[in-house]
Amino acid sequence: MSDPLRLGIAGLGTVGVGVLKILRDQADLIAARAGRPLVATAVSARSRDKDRGVDISGLAWEDDPVTLATRDDVDVFVELMGGSDGPAKAATEAAIAAGKDVVTANKAMLAHHGQALAEAAEAAGHVIRFEAAVAGGIPVIKALTEGLSANRVLRVMGVMNGTCNYILTRMQSSGLPYQTVFEEADKLGFLEADPELDVGGIDAGHKLSLLASIAFGTRVDFAAVQLEGIGNITIEDIEQAADMGYRIKLLGVAQMTGRGLEQRMQPCLVPDSSPLGQLEGGTNMVVLEGDAVGQIVLRGAGAGEGPTASAVMADVIDIARGIRLSTFGQPAAGLLAARGASSAVPAPYYLRMALMDKPGALAKIATVLGDNGISIDRMRQYGHTDTAAPVLIVTHKTTRAALDAAISGMDVTGVVAGRPVALRIEQV
Amino acid sequence: MSDPLRLGIAGLGTVGVGVLKILRDQADLIAARAGRPLVATAVSARSRDKDRGVDISGLAWEDDPVTLATRDDVDVFVELMGGSDGPAKAATEAAIAAGKDVVTANKAMLAHHGQALAEAAEAAGHVIRFEAAVAGGIPVIKALTEGLSANRVLRVMGVMNGTCNYILTRMQSSGLPYQTVFEEADKLGFLEADPELDVGGIDAGHKLSLLASIAFGTRVDFAAVQLEGIGNITIEDIEQAADMGYRIKLLGVAQMTGRGLEQRMQPCLVPDSSPLGQLEGGTNMVVLEGDAVGQIVLRGAGAGEGPTASAVMADVIDIARGIRLSTFGQPAAGLLAARGASSAVPAPYYLRMALMDKPGALAKIATVLGDNGISIDRMRQYGHTDTAAPVLIVTHKTTRAALDAAISGMDVTGVVAGRPVALRIEQV
C-alpha cells in the first residue's frame, strides 16, 4: 500500500466535522478502496476550543487557513469555510500555488472564480474537485462529468435548494402562507444567515452555473443566470397549481439554444406526477438529459453533515485513487464564453391575475393575449371577492418576451388589479 | 493532444451499433473531454454484410473475436457479444492476456466469472469496466464505486429488468392477466430469446450480484442470490396490493446482515408513493443507501441502443482519461467470500390464500400464524366465489422462516385451497 494521502481541512462546521468523523470511523474501508490510507494532518477554523464532538487534539492547528493550505504535510487542501471571496479564495489560491490539490464544497467561490481557479490549478498540474458544492450527497458532478461523458447534453434541471423545496411543500401540505412558513424554516435553522441566498435562488443559481459549465463546455457564467426567488409565491398559486395537476418548484434549468446558453433559476410549474413534482421536503433532485442516454434522474439529500461529507470524501478518495480530471470536465483554458440567451425556449405559462369587476374585462385580457400571439389552453375565473375576481390562465407555448409584452398590455386596459403573476410550466 | 485510444469492438447488435454511432457523431466532443481522440479500429460480429445503418467499411474485420481482442492496433477490447461463456469469455481472457483493457456490457459473464477475470486483469495491470452491464444508461456502477466510496453501504435495491417492470405495470394499468401481457411483451420484442432470463429474475439477479460485490467488498456470488420470478403474480395480487397502497415490483435487494450477505431478487410490495412504487414501464431504478449519504435514488433507461452505448462509452472515456480502478472497487485478490444469508432480515409480508367455506376456517389460520409468532397487521376477507373466499393478510414484521413454517401449518388445517402466495413488503 502506498503512502498516506494527507489532508489539511479548513473549516470545522457541520461538513468539516462530518469529514473528520468519516476519516476516523471508516479508515480501513477507505484505505481498502483508495489503495492507501487517508489522514487529516492539520485543521483550521474560527475557534480552536469549541466542542465539536470529534477529537482534533492529534491534528496540527493553524489559525490562518492560508498557512494551513501551504503546509508541507498537506497533499490535499479541503476548503469547507464557504464564502465567495475572503479567506476561502485566498487559501485556495495559496494551496494551488503551493502545489496542492483542492477539494471544496464552496459553490459561491466557484460560481464567481471557478474559471480563474481552474486555469491556475490546471496550469500547475493540480486538480480542484467540488462534488459537495452541488446537491450535497448526490454524486451529480461525477454523473455529469464522467457518467454522461459520451453525450451531447440537451438539458440539465434541478431542485437544488432544500430550504426552498421545504418551504414550498410545507405551504402546500399546511395551507399556510409564505411568510409563516418562512419564519418556521428560520426557527428550524434551515435558512442561511442571509436568507436571500436561499429564497432568492442565489445558492441554487450558483450550483446551476457549475452544472452548465460541465454540461455545455462553457465558462462558468453565474452573472448570466436569470434569478427569481420564491418570495412572491402565494398559497393561492400553490393551491391553484395543484388544482390543475401541477406543483410549484424552484427549478433550475440550463440548456443550449440556437440563441445561446439559457440558465434559469426560477419558480416553475411541473406536473405533479413527475419525479420533480413528487419531490417533497428538503430533498434535492437533478435531471440530466443527454442525446444518447435520454433522461437520468438523481435524488438524495442536498445538505447535512453526512451527505455533504460523503461527497467531499468521494472527491478525496478519487484523488487518492489517481483520478485527475479537469475541473469542469475539459481543460479550463479551452472553455468558451457562452452567449447568454434569455428565456429563448418557448413554454406554456401559468398566469394569475385579479380582474376588476367591469363589463368586458375578461374579453380585454383575452384580446391582449391574442394580440401578442398567445393562445389560451385553459382558463378559470373564480367568484368575486370585493371588487376583483381571481383569474387563472394556462397558455399554450409562448416566449417570455411575448408574455411580458402581453402583461404590459394588460396594464393599459385598466381591468387588472396589480401585476399578474407569470410562472413558466417546464416540460419535464 | 495524445495519441488516439483504439477500440476493437466485438458484437454489432443494438449496443455495438450505438457505440459506433457515438464514435462517429461525437468525435470532437469526446476528444475534448477525454483529452485524446477515440477511434474504432476493428470489429467482429456474426455477419459482415448485414446493413446496420452505420458504415463499417473503414474498419478492419475479424471473424474471430479472439483474434480481434489480441490485435496490435487495439488498446481497449469492447465486448458486446453477451453470453456467460463461449466466445465472449474466450475473447475477454485473450484480451487480458494480450495486455488490453476491457469494457463489457456482459452481466452474465461477470456474474459467473467476474472474480477470475478481475484477478487476471488486475494481476496484469489492466482494467475491466462494466457500467453498461447494470441498469443500462444509469451510471450506477460509478455512483456506487466512486460516488459513495466514503460510505459503509447499508443496502442496495433496484428494479433492474425493464421487461418485468413493463409486464407488472401493464397488468396494473390494463387489468389483463400475466399470460396475456407476457405474450404482448413477447410480440413487442421485449423478451430475451430465453424469456426465463427476464421473467425468472436471472438477468436482474446477475446485476444485483455485481452491485453487491462493489457495495460490500465481497466476491461476486450469483449462486447465492435467492431468485424468484414474476410468473406467479396474478392480476388479483396486483389489484389487491394496489388497494392496500402498494405496488408489486421485481425488486433486487442486497444487504449485509449479522448472519451474512443477503441477496434477493424477488417480487416485493413497495409503497405506491415511494420512488420505486412510482416507477412505470421499462424504466430502471437503483436505490443506494450509505451510512453517511443516506438514500440516493437513480432512475433512467435500463436498456436500448443509446442508453447502453452511453454507458459503454463512458467506460471507454474513463480509460482514455486515465481512470484506472479495480473492477469491483478494490483489488479483486483481496475480496472475501461472503457467507450467504437467506432472508435473515425480518419484514412484513403480504399473504393471499383461498379459504374454504368451513366453520372456524379463519380462526384456524389466525391460530397458525399466532403459533408461529406472526401477528396480523391488516386482514381482508372477500365474498365467497364457489367454495373458497379470497383472504388477504398483511403481517407485522416476521422472518421468512417463521412464515414458511406458518404456511406449512396452514396446509395441515385443511381449510386453505392451494398454496398461499407470500410476498415480502420491502421497507423503502
From TrEMBL, chains A, B:
EC category: oxidoreductase
Keyword Amino-acid biosynthesis: yes
Cross-referenced Pfam families: ACT, Homoserine_dh, NAD_binding_3
CDD domains: ACT_HSDH-Hom
Documented EC number(s): 1.1.1.3
Positions annotated to bind L-homoserine: E192
Top-rank taxon: Bacteria
InterPro entries: ACT-like_dom_sf (IPR045865), ACT_dom (IPR002912), Asp/hSer_DH_NAD-bd (IPR005106), HDH (IPR016204), HDH_cat (IPR001342), NAD(P)-bd_dom_sf (IPR036291)
Pathway membership: Amino-acid biosynthesis; L-threonine biosynthesis; L-threonine from L-aspartate: step 3/5; Amino-acid biosynthesis; L-methionine biosynthesis via de novo pathway; L-homoserine from L-aspartate: step 3/3
Biological process, per Gene Ontology: methionine biosynthetic process; threonine biosynthetic process
Record has Hydrolase as a keyword: no
Residue stretches making up the ACT domain: 350-421
Positions contributing to NADPH binding: K107
GO MF annotation, one: NADP binding
Gene3D superfamilies: 3.30.70.260, Dihydrodipicolinate Reductase, domain 2 (3.30.360.10), NAD(P)-binding Rossmann-like Domain (3.40.50.720)
Active site (catalytic residues): K207 (proton donor)
Keyword terms: Amino-acid biosynthesis, Methionine biosynthesis, NADP, Oxidoreductase, Threonine biosynthesis
Annotated family: Belongs to the homoserine dehydrogenase family.
Name recorded for this polypeptide: Homoserine dehydrogenase
